[in-house]
Task: inverse folding
């Protein structure tokens, strides 16, 4: 709890970052709308990207923030104090979760009310999926920052971990048209399930078993990445 | 009396990057004492301090703190530690940063005010940590170590870059803490700080060269100050 409060206080001192966090996905959606220049084409691609944009942004924010905690020595100091690793990571998740909810809410509302995004399913499911997506990006960012020694490396993990997921998640080519190996890769990447769920909500109002399974996969992957992220924290270092 | 030994380092050897940094280090520190750890930079002072707070992977030997192995969960709110590089969140105000560490340590809220006054940052309580001068920042870092009721303080170069008046005040603070039964281990590479300690450990190349009172050291080496005593000991050892 105190960690979450501290991270939000840090963000408060950086209004430019807050503004970018809240508005960036929305601005990208606006850009996308004008690029497509047709409501139908926009409505086909937009839901998937509503999940992808926050995923990317939260991945970057989370990996840089944790890396800074490591390089500034504050992590080493915290690790000599009575705080549990899961408690610390949980604090991160809570703070960035709040940011993710705000970010996704703004982007979704802008898309639906202003850009005339047409969705058949209920709006709240779209919101839930997009928030889970942002949380997944955050959790992955936390996890991979353990393997980066510098901010240069952390930045480059973005293309390594994020781009393949975007290429294979079904936004560019439908997943069932991919070659065997690519299809398999797509199957093990959590973002694929997010895009699948988002597409489902756009087309149908039914809450089906496969939608429930997709949600469980995304949430489960986020949770797993958080636990793995906590496991990379070391009280003793060489 | 077993209880009076606060730190017991027994045959401690540490390697970092294949190179021995500490070799068979052995010493004890009694309760309520101020022990100075002196030596040139790179002699292993910081590594030794990290081993005592349980942040360092050790190769062999034992470090016992307050009767428990170093780094034991039971020690995490009993040992205060300030690293050489000020480990305080730069994007928070002094008060916010200390409030966070205080809540992690479950220290009283009034503690934040107290430690800010103790390190002489009262006029900067609402300044951003990142905008403080180097000396002010290291005092903010020292303030974190003073939160709660630490029985042992491990302070890595706490007085670097401070003006003589502040240095005087901090040493007065250290001695008043020791008078209350707190044990202090303070490192410095400035030899003229040595005279302020009750006991000195002179380190060079991962070994303890001398373990004596400042006066005992001067008498034994027939020198006027610790700097010359140190030089003489190095020559004798060679």
Result:
């Amino acid at each position: 709890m105190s960690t979450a409060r501290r991270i939000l206080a840090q963000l408060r001192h950086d209004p430019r970052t807050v503004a970018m966090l809240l508005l960036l996905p929305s601005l990208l959606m606006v850009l996308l709308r004008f690029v497509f220049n047709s409501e139908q084409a926009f409505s086909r691609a937009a839901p998937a990207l509503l999940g992808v944009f926050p995923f990317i942004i939260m991945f970057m924010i989370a990996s840089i923030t944790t890396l800074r905690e490591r390089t500034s020595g504050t992590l080493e100091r915290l690790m000599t104090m009575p705080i549990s690793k899961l408690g610390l990571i949980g604090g991160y998740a809570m703070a960035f979760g709040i940011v993710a909810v705000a970010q996704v809410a703004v982007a979704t509302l802008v898309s639906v009310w202003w850009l005339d995004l047409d969705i058949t399913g209920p709006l709240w499911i779209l919101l839930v999926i997009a928030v889970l997506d942002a949380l997944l990006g955050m959790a992955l960012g936390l996890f991979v920052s353990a393997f980066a020694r510098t901010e240069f490396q952390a930045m480059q993990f973005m293309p390594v971990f994020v781009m393949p997921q975007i290429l294979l998640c079904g936004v560019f080519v439908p997943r069932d048209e991919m070659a065997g190996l690519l299809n398999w890769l797509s199957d093990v990447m959590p973002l694929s399930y997010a895009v699948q769920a988002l597409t489902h909500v756009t087309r149908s109002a039914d809450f089906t078993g496969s939608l429930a399974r997709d949600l469980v996969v995304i949430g489960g992957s986020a949770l797993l990445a958080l636990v793995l992220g906590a496991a990379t924290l070391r009280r003793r270092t060489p | 009396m077993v209880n009076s030994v606060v730190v017991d380092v027994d045959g401690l050897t540490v390697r970092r990057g294949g190179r021995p940094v500490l070799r068979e280090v052995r010493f004890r520190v009694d309760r309520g004492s101020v022990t100075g750890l002196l030596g040139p930079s790179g002699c292993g002072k910081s590594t030794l301090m990290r081993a005592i707070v349980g942040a360092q992977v050790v190769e062999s030997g034992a470090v016992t703190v307050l009767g428990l192995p170093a780094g034991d969960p039971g020690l995490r709110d009993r040992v205060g530690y300030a690293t050489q590089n000020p480990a305080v969140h730069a994007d928070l105000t002094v008060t916010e940063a200390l409030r966070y560490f205080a809540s992690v340590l479950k220290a009283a809220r009034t503690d934040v005010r107290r430690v800010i006054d103790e390190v002489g940052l009262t006029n900067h309580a609402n300044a951003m940590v990142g905008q403080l001068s180097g000396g002010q920042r290291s005092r903010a870092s020292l303030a974190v170590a003073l939160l709660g009721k630490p029985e042992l303080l491990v302070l890595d170069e706490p007085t670097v870059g401070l003006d003589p008046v502040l240095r005087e005040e901090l040493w007065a603070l250290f001695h008043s803490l020791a008078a209350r039964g707190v044990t202090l281990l303070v490192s410095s590479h400035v030899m003229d700080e040595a005279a302020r300690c009750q006991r000195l450990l002179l380190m060079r190349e991962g070994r303890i060269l001398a373990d004596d009172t400042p006066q005992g050291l001067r008498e034994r080496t027939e020198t006027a100050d610790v700097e010359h005593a140190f030089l003489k000991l190095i020559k004798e050892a060679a």
Remarks:
- Chain A has a mean pLDDT of 87.
- Residues 33 and 179 of chain A are 30 Å apart (CA to CA).
- The first helix of chain A runs from residue 2 to 12.
- The radius of gyration of chain A is 18 Å.
